[in-house]
Amino acid sequence: MNKHIANYLEQLKSELRDSDKATIQDATADAHEHLSTALVIAREEDPTQTEEEAIQAIITAYGSPAEIAAAYQQAEIYMAPYTPSARKSSNKGLLARFFGIYGDPTAWGGLLYMILSLVTGIVYFTWAITGLSFSLVFSLFIFGIPFAVLFILSVHGLGLLEGRMVEGLLGVRMPRRPLYFPKDKKWFDRLKQYLADKQTWKVLLYLILQLVFGSIDIFIWVFFIALSLSFIAIPFIVSIFNLPVVTLSSAVYFLPDWTLPVIFIGGILLLTASMHIFKGVGKLHGKFARWALVAD
């Protein structure tokens, strides 16, 4: 990386040190791509111009690190994902907070994310393992390096796509720009740069583990939803069809009438508690996504 661009990026990070890590990644990725591309164009248009002169003119036109940082911090106010106010929730009573979960978008987002995580986990795992396998096999051939580079690019692309889903469903701020890697290098040099970047391995690990987490998610979802809905449905089934709750080979067992409202209320309470669990699982997914998909 050009030393002037590297210095600019460090200053930009310093100006954004109090901002969200995802905002810092977006700002530095945009700046890196713009400055690098503009420098190449400037040197091609005027070869007599020194690199330092060219980069200074580009930075002047683009904006100082302080100006760019201020612009991103201002934009972040309007682009931050929506999350319910914790202060408003804390002012409510215990019952209001408990049953108010049905009005919490992050709880519904966590529920939907858990359902989708198994599907995305299968896709991610299949692509990651298949791509790794073919990359190793093709490394014996001349086209193996370009294939590996394209596979790693697809991994970063899937990581960016997953980040958009996490932000949309879980309300966790995720990067909206991919990390910038120079495209004018040779295939082998690009591959070395990708492999040396720990972010590549973090994203790849995330894609592989999503199948495990997706399987756990779907088990939790099915267990709590099926159990709570069963409790809610039992009183109606027993009352309408006069069916026993338990049937053995030699006997049948009916519930006393007084237990039916208790079971129904228990089902409502369990379903509400399940929504809190889904929200908590969503928060855990968001924290893991932040660790794996946001660059340090």
How is this structure best described in words?
The structure is a single chain. This protein is mainly α. The protein has eleven helices and two strands; from the N terminus they run H-H-H-H-H-H-H-H-H-H-E-E-H. Helices cover 76% and strands 1% of the residues.
Structural class: mainly alpha
Overall mean pLDDT stands at: 87
Shape: elongated
> Largest sheet, if any?
2 strands, antiparallel
Number of strands: 2
Order of secondary-structure elements:
HHHHHHHHHHEEH
Strand content: under 5%
Provide the helix percentage.
over 70%
Specify the oligomeric state.
Answer: single chain
Q: What distance separates the N and C termini?
A: 18 Å
Strand order of the largest sheet: 1-2
User: What is the gyration radius calculated from CA atoms?
Assistant: 27 Å
What is the overall number of helices?
A: 11
Residue stretches low in confidence (pLDDT < 50, at least 5 long) are none
Structural key phrases:
single chain, 1% strand, 11 helices, 76% helix, elongated, two-stranded antiparallel sheet, mainly alpha, 296 residues
Q: How would you summarize the topology of this molecule?
A:
Layout: H1 3-15, H2 21-45, H3 51-62, H4 65-79, H5 86-90, H6 94-99, H7 105-138, H8 144-170, H9 187-196, H10 198-241, E1 246-247, E2 252-253, H11 259-293
Antiparallel strand pairs: 1-2
Helix pairs in contact: 1-2, 1-4, 2-3, 7-8, 7-10, 7-11, 8-9, 8-10, 8-11, 10-11
